[in-house]
Amino acid sequence: MTPEAEQSQPEPPVEETSPEPSADDVPSAGDEVTAGDEAPVGEDSTSEDSGEQQARPEERLERAVRAAEQALIEYEIAVETFRVEVENFSRLHHQRLGPMYARLDELDAQIAEARAARTGDPEDTRKAQEARARVMPMPGVEELFHGWLDSDGLSPEASAMLTEQPVRPPQRVRPSDEARKLYRELVRKAHPDLAQDDAERRRRDEFIARVNAAYARGDEVLLQELSEEWAAGPVPEEWRPSRSEELYVRLEWLAQRKELLSLVARDLEEGAIGAMLKLAPDDPDRLLEEIAEQLLTQVSEREAELAELLG
User: Which CATH class is domain 174-217?
Assistant: First the structure.
């Protein structure tokens, strides 16, 4: 509409409140909130209408964030539900079929060893060694003791615990003269009793705790760094983003979270257990029974083959 046409028409009545924006008004995460997003204000608009129109982009952003949060929650529920199903099916698969797989590996190793013993062929011997290596070995002593062994056998702490003897106390730390000097200076300068208000007391309490920890370790370098930090003074308050900037950051985080969940869901679906579940989503127990029948058939065939080689 041209300015002349706009002036020729009667002025519309001023509404007390602006109409509620539609779903099409919700911006995407990549949109920017600028002054250009605000509706133009005519000569007949009041200052109250102008304030409401200026607030609309932020309100739209808030609605977009809330919608994205709800969508992400539903997606997380779906992914977690599928993850639990995969874990449960994997557990059942291992419990019911694990012994059969182990039996097949053992039979394959025995068949390869029997064939190598009969032919004496180096290639058959190599295959037998590879087949035996695939059989799950017994855990070693080191694995059973979970790092309690050192180069001289059992560590002193492990030996003391197994023989019900007291564990050797840690070696006493003796701070250097310079560390003691730095410690005294820092305590004199940063003692919490010198604070003028509660905020300053909390800052000093936190700082003295770090000083005490460094002195307990005899860490002269850290004490020097703490001395320089105190001399520099308190860290100024960090810059705080606007509400719109916070909302945009939130939308970006929600999008990144969705991408990560998509990767998790894809890995679950493309994994061996997830692929099996997709074959029989309504009756996974029946699928386990079918696989068990196939494995039992394979075990019988391997046992017959081994008996023939040994006979």
Answer: mainly alpha
